[in-house]
Amino acid sequence: MGAIYMGLVVCVLLTVTQILVRKFYPQGDKFLIIFACILSVIGMAVLYRLDTSVAIKQLIWFTAGIVVFITLVVAIRDLRDFAKYKKVYLIVTLIFMPMALIFGTEVYGATNWVMIGSMGFQPSEFGKISFVIYLAAALKDYEDKNNIIEDFRQLWQPALVVMYSLGCLFMQKDLGSALIFFGIAITMLYVATGKKKYVVITFALFIAGSFLAYQLFPHVRERILIWRNPWKYSNTEGYQIVQGLYSISSGGMLGSGLGEGYPGFVPVNTSDFIFAVICEELGMIFAIGIMMIYFLFFYRGMRAAFRVQDRFSQLGTIGISAMIACQVLVIIGGVFALIPLTGITLPLISYGGSSILSMFFALAILQKISEEG
């Protein structure tokens, strides 16, 4: 009965949001919230199979996310009016990024959680949003004057903010978020300037910084060594990756069936490795379908970016689309051992209040930008 009640709540929430979007904001994208709800329902179904109490908590966060989405869509009349608050976004980013370093608690090797009583949140989840909006506000007025000195004057401040954010994340050992922030920054930089040389320079600096981090931080070396040969550490640090790979392979193309697998062998299966559970019980075909929905998410965001004329809105939607794409690629790549495991959530599917709220906040921004086109 619990699953039925949860399904009814989700149906009501989806109906309300669809009525709101289609009746009162018909010029906006009608598919973004549908994709978000599909992914959220898949997540809650898998979580209900894993742990009913976690699924109920996720439903509460999903409801809060829908409320945040509706509130922002109704309250924000024109997102272009917010381009002038660059300093506010800068201050918010500067506050959120080091917050976990100052007040944080170490969880699974990364100091990226701030605990308030029994509740906790990840500041980097909200820092991502302010980071994207700040870069959109900072880069919207960029003009190509074919002069490196003029370019330096226009780009030095956002460059420092990017380095500051990446430095905070490396200090927190939050390597997954660092990759996402880097992906956001390099995508927005290229779109804003159109210059490949800046992309090459940024990549070179990132590679140099990664090499330095490998030399200075033991946890970075450990992640690389485990990634290169997880089977060597299958009973210790590589246990999670190896069990995830076993889980994926046992599911095959069609899966063992929901509730018929053995997800208990996979550590952190409600957040970091929920995709391995999906592959095992629902199959690789279903998992590919989920990736296609994420791709459609990215496509709808980029479509809105090409349709709007305002530079701030265009960069904002590109940044958010890149944020979603990078997060999906990083966590799925880690689960399949294509890249070192970084320990981040799969958007809208993994359990996590901070992730759900930040995603629906970003979704509301995409929705408002789509109305401009």
Q: Would you write up a description of this structure?
A:
The protein is mainly alpha-helical. It has one domain. Helix 7 runs antiparallel to helix 8, helix 8 runs antiparallel to helix 9 and helix 12 runs parallel beside helix 14. The model has no long low-confidence stretch (mean pLDDT 87).
Basic shape:
globular
Largest sheet: 3 strands, antiparallel
**By helix and strand content, what is the structural category?**
mainly alpha
Element-level helix/strand string: HHHHHEEEHHHHHHHHH
- Calculate Rg over CA atoms: 21 Å
Count of discrete domains: 1
Tell me the number of strands: 3
Low-confidence runs = none
The main sheet orders its strands as 1-2-3
Helix content: over 70%
Q: How would you concisely characterize the structure shown here?
A:
The protein has helices at 2-24, 32-50, 52-75, 86-96, 99-103, 123-139, 148-171, 175-193, 196-216, 218-228, 239-251, 274-307, 311-335, 353-372; strands at 104-107, 110-116, 119-121. The protein has 373 residues and is mainly alpha-helical.
Key words describing this protein structure:
single chain; mainly alpha; 4% strand; 373 residues; three-stranded antiparallel sheet
Topology record:
Blueprint (H helix, E strand, L loop, with lengths): L1 H23 L7 H19 L1 H24 L10 H11 L2 H5 E4 L2 E7 L2 E3 L1 H17 L8 H24 L3 H19 L2 H21 L1 H11 L10 H13 L22 H34 L3 H25 L17 H20 L1
Antiparallel strand pairs: 1-2, 2-3
Helix pairs in contact: 1-2, 1-3, 2-3, 2-12, 3-14, 4-6, 6-7, 6-8, 6-13, 6-14, 7-8, 8-9, 8-13, 9-10, 11-12, 12-13, 12-14, 13-14
